[in-house]
């Protein structure tokens, strides 16, 4: 999901995974750098006996992608320890998602839905929530 700079729109972005090649999804995971991560842990392993190791590797993948660390993300994907199919919510930049989908030939599988969110917060709160340090400094 993605929230705009004013906190008014939330968009859900999904890929129709059955029709998208797993390698394309892996490359897209490395290409996309989410603006922020919603919540603490973003991945939930399915197999209980491998839960701890799989969760740790998958969480590291989510964090590496969020930091834009393509080296670590690539290593985790190549090792097979992190599963790109674990479910989770990551806040994504809509433009970056669309550009990566176009580059990977997966634009036809990209779906978006929007719903309005009303937020009674200050511009300072929104700037801080979006990590816009320059705007926070200007507003202070």
Model description:
This protein has one domain. It contains 6 helices and 3 strands; from the N terminus they run E-E-H-H-H-H-E-H-H. The longest helix has 17 residues, at 51-67. A hairpin with a 5-residue loop joins strand 1 (2-3) and strand 2 (9-15). It starts with a strand and ends with a helix. It is extended, with a radius of gyration of 16 Å. The protein has helices at 22-31, 51-67, 70-79, 94-103, 123-129, 133-139, and strands at residues 2-3, 9-15, 110-116. With 140 residues, the protein is an alpha+beta fold. The protein has a 3-stranded antiparallel beta sheet, with helices on one face. InterPro entries: Ankyrin_rpt-contain_sf (IPR036770). This is Ankyrin repeat domain-containing protein. It comes from Aegilops tauschii subsp. strangulata.
């Amino acid at each position: 999901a993605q929230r705009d700079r004013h906190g008014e729109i939330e968009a859900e972005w999904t890929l129709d995974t059955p029709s998208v090649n797993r390698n394309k999804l892996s490359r897209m995971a490395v290409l996309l750098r989410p603006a922020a991560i919603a919540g603490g842990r973003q991945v939930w392993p399915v197999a209980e006996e491998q839960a701890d190791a799989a969760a740790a590797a998958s969480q590291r993948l989510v964090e590496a992608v969020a930091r834009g660390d393509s080296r670590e993300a690539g290593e985790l994907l190549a090792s097979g320890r992190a599963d790109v199919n674990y479910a989770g919510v990551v806040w994504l930049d809509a433009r970056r998602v669309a550009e990566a989908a176009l580059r990977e030939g997966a634009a036809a599988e990209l779906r978006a839905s929007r719903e309005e969110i009303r937020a009674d917060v200050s511009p300072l709160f929104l700037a801080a929530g979006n990590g816009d340090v320059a705007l926070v400094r200007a507003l202070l």
